[in-house]
Structures are given as structure tokens and as C-alpha cells.
């Protein structure tokens, strides 16, 4: 029986991908690295340090760990500053309604994000009250596709993985949900999320009615 939901943040609750893109692009231009939206899409759901390694590999560049940490911090400063432009109008379509209905129906709800800035994003959206537990990039050390962030959420909610549905927009996120024994909902295209138990093209279609109809047994 489904008792809880664990939500990814970026790409599910709100679309920060464009803000991440602008911040990485700023750094890449300064470093004379090639960086475009196709590479940006590969950073979906993965941690900041893993992201900079993907960009570096793409550019056949090598830097020591210390410089990488400094550059990742530089990108993060730009990103965090840009989060100040985010407002409670920036939920993805239908998500506020879904979170509201989950509250009304008494489901347990956790956040399971790779982002170390998740709390700031939730505060900008005025969304913290929708969550019983906030799991973010500071909560566990192994990031998606490892299941740790979702196991953390389930444990804090005092639920078993099979009692929870993970909602994700990243391939690595669905991999993580499956590795942990969770049910999964993918938000996005078949090519990326065909391995999710249930998939919607966009958040708009992900209503509690549709979700309950699918997971009814
Ligand atoms: P930060 P999610 C992920 O969040 C993003 O999808 C990913 O692009 C980003 O690199 C990662 O958070 C780390 O974010 O630099 O803010 O710690 O999708 O897991 O909510
Ligand atoms: Mg995401």
C-alpha cells in the first residue's frame, strides 16, 4: 500500500535547469570550454562535482581537485544569486495542486534532491510546508543513481521503499529509485524515462487521480 511520496526537486517541483545552464555557461565561457544545452541535459539529477567532471571530460580538460572545487564554487555563487529571482509563481504546472492534494489525503511526503541548495529553492517557492522531510545534497554522500537519498527519505518517514513512490525527471533518478526498491514515476520523454513504472510527458498530467488509478493495488 502506498503511504508516501519522495519528490525530486529540479525538473519536478520547479525548473531550475535554465538557471543551472546560465551559471555553468558563464563559467564555461570564462574558461573557454565548450558548453551547450545538450551537455547541460546530461547534468540533470547529478551532483555539482560530478557535473563539472562531465563538462571537463567533454572538453578533454584536466584540472586538479582543488581547482575543480574552486570553479564549482564559482558556478554555485552565480546559481545561488540567480535563485533570488525565483518566486511562488515558479512551480511547474500542476505540482502545487498535487502537493496540496497529498497533504489533504494525509500522505507522507519527502524531498529527495541532489541539490545542496534545495532548501533555498523551496523557500523561494514558499513550499517547505508541503514536506515532512527534506533530503538534499547535504543529507547523503552517494548521489543518484545510488538510492541513498531516497532510502534516507523513506527511513525518516518511517516507511519501507515499497510503500513509497519516487517522482523524478532524471534517468539517474529512476535508476536510483529502482535500485532502492521504490515505485517510480518519471516526468519527461520515453527515451529518458521509459524505465519508470509510470511516466507522464509533463507535470501537468501527473494528477493524484491518475497516480492513484495506476498504483491502486
Ligand atoms: P547544486 P535534483 C540536481 O537537483 C540538479 O538536477 C542537477 O542539475 C544539479 O547539478 C544537482 O541538483 C546539484 O545541485 O549544485 O545546487 O547542489 O534534480 O536532484 O533536485
Ligand atoms: Mg531532477
TrEMBL record:
<dbReference type="GO" id="GO:0050308">
    <property type="term" value="F:sugar-phosphatase activity"/>
</dbReference>
<dbReference type="GO" id="GO:0005975">
    <property type="term" value="P:carbohydrate metabolic process"/>
</dbReference>
<comment type="similarity">
    <text>Belongs to the HAD-like hydrolase superfamily. CbbY/CbbZ/Gph/YieH family.</text>
</comment>
<feature type="binding site">
    <location>
        <begin position="113"/>
        <end position="117"/>
    </location>
    <ligand>
        <name>substrate</name>
    </ligand>
</feature>
<dbReference type="InterPro" id="IPR023198">
    <property type="entry name" value="PGP-like_dom2"/>
</dbReference>
<feature type="binding site">
    <location>
        <position position="144"/>
    </location>
    <ligand>
        <name>substrate</name>
    </ligand>
</feature>
<feature type="binding site">
    <location>
        <position position="75"/>
    </location>
    <ligand>
        <name>substrate</name>
    </ligand>
</feature>
<dbReference type="GO" id="GO:0008801">
    <property type="term" value="F:beta-phosphoglucomutase activity"/>
</dbReference>
<keyword id="KW-0460">Magnesium</keyword>
<feature type="binding site">
    <location>
        <position position="169"/>
    </location>
    <ligand>
        <name>Mg(2+)</name>
    </ligand>
</feature>
<feature type="binding site">
    <location>
        <position position="51"/>
    </location>
    <ligand>
        <name>substrate</name>
    </ligand>
</feature>
<feature type="binding site">
    <location>
        <begin position="8"/>
        <end position="10"/>
    </location>
    <ligand>
        <name>substrate</name>
    </ligand>
</feature>
<protein>
    <submittedName>
        <fullName>Beta-phosphoglucomutase</fullName>
        <ecNumber>5.4.2.6</ecNumber>
    </submittedName>
</protein>
<feature type="binding site">
    <location>
        <position position="10"/>
    </location>
    <ligand>
        <name>Mg(2+)</name>
    </ligand>
</feature>
<feature type="active site" description="Nucleophile">
    <location>
        <position position="8"/>
    </location>
</feature>
<feature type="site" description="Important for catalytic activity and assists the phosphoryl transfer reaction to Asp8 by balancing charge and orienting the reacting groups">
    <location>
        <position position="144"/>
    </location>
</feature>
<feature type="binding site">
    <location>
        <position position="8"/>
    </location>
    <ligand>
        <name>Mg(2+)</name>
    </ligand>
</feature>
<feature type="site" description="Important for catalytic activity and assists the phosphoryl transfer reaction to Asp8 by balancing charge and orienting the reacting groups">
    <location>
        <position position="113"/>
    </location>
</feature>
<keyword id="KW-0479">Metal-binding</keyword>
<dbReference type="InterPro" id="IPR010972">
    <property type="entry name" value="Beta-PGM"/>
</dbReference>
<dbReference type="Pfam" id="PF00702">
    <property type="entry name" value="Hydrolase"/>
</dbReference>
<feature type="binding site">
    <location>
        <position position="168"/>
    </location>
    <ligand>
        <name>Mg(2+)</name>
    </ligand>
</feature>
<feature type="binding site">
    <location>
        <begin position="43"/>
        <end position="48"/>
    </location>
    <ligand>
        <name>substrate</name>
    </ligand>
</feature>
<dbReference type="InterPro" id="IPR051806">
    <property type="entry name" value="HAD-like_SPP"/>
</dbReference>
<feature type="binding site">
    <location>
        <position position="24"/>
    </location>
    <ligand>
        <name>substrate</name>
    </ligand>
</feature>
<dbReference type="InterPro" id="IPR023214">
    <property type="entry name" value="HAD_sf"/>
</dbReference>
<keyword id="KW-0413">Isomerase</keyword>
<feature type="active site" description="Proton donor/acceptor">
    <location>
        <position position="10"/>
    </location>
</feature>
<dbReference type="GO" id="GO:0000287">
    <property type="term" value="F:magnesium ion binding"/>
</dbReference>
<dbReference type="InterPro" id="IPR006439">
    <property type="entry name" value="HAD-SF_hydro_IA"/>
</dbReference>
<dbReference type="InterPro" id="IPR010976">
    <property type="entry name" value="B-phosphoglucomutase_hydrolase"/>
</dbReference>
<dbReference type="InterPro" id="IPR036412">
    <property type="entry name" value="HAD-like_sf"/>
</dbReference>
Amino acid at each position: 500500500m502506498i503511504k508516501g511520496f519522495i519528490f525530486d526537486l529540479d525538473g519536478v517541483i520547479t525548473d531550475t535547469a535554465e538557471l543551472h545552464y546560465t551559471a555553468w555557461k558563464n563559467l564555461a565561457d570564462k574558461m573557454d570550454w565548450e558548453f551547450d544545452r545538450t551537455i547541460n541535459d546530461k547534468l540533470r539529477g547529478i551532483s555539482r562535482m560530478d557535473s563539472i567532471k562531465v563538462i571537463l571530460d567533454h572538453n578533454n580538460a584536466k584540472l586538479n581537485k582543488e581547482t575543480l572545487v574552486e570553479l564549482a564554487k564559482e558556478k554555485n555563487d552565480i546559481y545561488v544569486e540567480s535563485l533570488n529571482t525565483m518566486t511562488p509563481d515558479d512551480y511547474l504546472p500542476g505540482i502545487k495542486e498535487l502537493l496540496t492534494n497529498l497533504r489533504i489525503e494525509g500522505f507522507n511526503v519527502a524531498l529527495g534532491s541532489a541539490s545542496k541548495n534545495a532548501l533555498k529553492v523551496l523557500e523561494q517557492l514558499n513550499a517547505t510546508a508541503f514536506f515532512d522531510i527534506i533530503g538534499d545534497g547535504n543529507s547523503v554522500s552517494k548521489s543518484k543513481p545510488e538510492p541513498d537519498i531516497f532510502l534516507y527519505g523513506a527511513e525518516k518517514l518511517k516507511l519501507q521503499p515499497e510503500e513509497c513512490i519516487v517522482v523524478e525527471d532524471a534517468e539517474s533518478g529512476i535508476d536510483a529509485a529502482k535500485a532502492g526498491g521504490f515505485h517510480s514515476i518519471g516526468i519527461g520523454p520515453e527515451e529518458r524515462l521509459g524505465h519508470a513504472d509510470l511516466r507522464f510527458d509533463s507535470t501537468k498530467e501527473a494528477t493524484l487521480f491518475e497516480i492513484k488509478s495506476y498504483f491502486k493495488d
